[in-house]
Amino acid sequence: MRHTYGVHSSFNIVIWVVCILAVIIAFGALIASRKTWEDYGKGRFVMDHETPRNAGVTERDDEIRQLLEARNERRARRGEAAIDVDEELARLTAPAVDPALREEIRQLVVARNHRRVRAGKPPLDVEAEIEREITALGGL
User: Fold this and answer.
1) C or N terminus of the chain, fewer CB within 10 Å?
2) Do 135 and 105 share a structural domain?
């Protein structure tokens, strides 16, 4: 029995030494990296990083514009009248809002106006605010 006690005792010592060394190395790496706590978990491969929300929208609009210009070229070859690319792009990329969604947005704007009035602030123009919210939905 004495033999196994020595092995267990040595094993415990080795485990403690390895753990303490690991903690020291981890703190050393933390200090050497000079990252703040907010920097951890951020990187170009993480979906949570800060990117402009309209980066994809701009790329989408460019591709739609190219398709519309190609359509105009085909129409011109057939002898048909060309369409206005900017107008068609605006029509295609406008947010589609059904009446139920518009009514829900209206209810939210009215509730926001009630809170503003209770806070002593002037109420907003409901129709203008509804259009602003719908426009903001288009940037998703």
Assistant:
1) N
2) yes
- Number of structural domains in the chain: 3
Please report the pLDDT score of residue 106 as a whole number: 92
Are 66 and 59 contacting, i.e. CB atoms less than 8 angstroms apart? no
Place of tokens 């806070």: 119
Shared-domain flag, residues 90 and 100: no
Domain residues for the domain of 61 are 51-94
What is residue 19's predicted lDDT score, i.e. its pLDDT? 96
pLDDT of residue 117: 93
Task: Tell me how far apart the alpha carbons of residues 84 and 69 are, in angstroms, rounded to a whole number.
Answer: 9
Global pTM? 0.42
The four Cα atoms 55, 61, 62, 64 give a dihedral, to 10 degrees, of 150
* Separation between Cα atoms, residue 105 and residue 99, nearest integer Å: 10
H-helix or E-strand spanning residue 21: helix 2-33
Spatial distance between the Cα atoms of 115 and 109, rounded to a whole number of angstroms: 10
